[in-house]
Write a structure and sequence with these properties.
The protein is α+β, with helices and mostly antiparallel strands. Helix content is 13%, strand content 32%. It has 4 helices and 14 strands. Strands 8-13-14-11-12 form a 5-stranded mixed beta sheet. 34% of the residues are buried.
Length: 255
């Protein structure tokens, strides 16, 4: 299973428009980065997700394709741009340090995703949920592992990927290995696992094939768990959210 994911650096797709007037030496050290996201025909793209992962800033474009990322430090930044139906993009940009900079980003269409005849509503919904995974990752609300990071670890089971995560310990279970959050009051307390937006009570992470995983989210308790994955006492032991891959996209398409 597979899905196209960012952040492969793809130049020639994004068009960087000139930086606005340079700021004097006494100007603020942080800049508002504004801009617009359009398709190859110049039509504005709404609801595109833009993120600077290094500073945990994320936003989405409005109905006219406009966006603003406030308080961006001066210097080199990488802006991830994602929208379902378009090729994910990573734009490298030099922030001037002046009051505001401006960029224009052009995304390339993925016809096989935009074509409603070929792609079911359920598949489009799953693609959007994975886009939301990358948006939460950019905001830094939990601990995240992308498909690229999973492949780079050369692990054989999911618990191998998670064992180095802060606050996680790997335990032996009847099914093999499982993971627990150190903050859990009960050492036998099993985190709630969600798979593609559905709860899987009692499941251990190694019951999921590593080859089927697109991304993993970790939340160590109710205070950090997003509302959509929080249910009564289910988050008391921590929450693990797993997204599986959609068919048809090879691993080398992942950034």
């Amino acid at each position: 299973m597979g899905i196209r994911a960012a952040p492969i650096v793809r130049f020639g797709v994004a068009c960087l428009v000139g930086v606005l007037a340079a700021a004097p030496p006494y100007a603020r050290a942080q800049t508002i980065v504004r801009g617009v996201v359009v398709d190859s025909s110049g039509k504005p793209i709404s609801e595109a997700a833009l993120a600077i992962i290094a500073i945990h800033q994320a936003t989405r474009t409005d109905d006219q394709g406009h966006f603003a990322l406030p308080s961006v430090p001066k210097g080199d930044v990488e802006i991830s741009v994602r929208r379902i139906g378009y090729e994910p993009l990573l734009v490298r940009f030099v922030v001037s340090g002046g009051p505001a900079d401006s960029i224009r980003v052009v995304l390339a269409e993925l016809p096989e995703v935009l074509d409603a005849v070929r792609v079911s509503a359920a598949e489009r919904h799953r693609r959007q949920r994975i886009e939301d995974f990358y948006f939460r990752r950019a905001r830094g609300l939990g601990t995240y592992f992308t498909r690229e990071e999973i492949l780079n670890r050369r692990a054989s089971v999911p618990s191998d990927v998670l064992r180095t995560a802060k606050g996680i310990r790997v335990v032996r279970t009847s099914a093999g290995n499982g993971v627990r959050f150190n903050s859990a009051t009960n050492a036998r307390c099993i985190p709630m696992i969600w798979v593609d937006g559905q709860r899987a009570p009692g499941m251990e992470i190694d019951e999921i094939s590593l080859n089927d995983i697109e991304g993993i989210e970790l939340y160590n308790g109710p205070a950090t768990t997003p509302a959509e994955f929080w249910q009564a006492n289910a988050a008391q032991c921590g929450t693990i959210v797993v997204w599986t891959r959609l068919p048809g996209v090879p691993d080398n398409s992942h950034p």
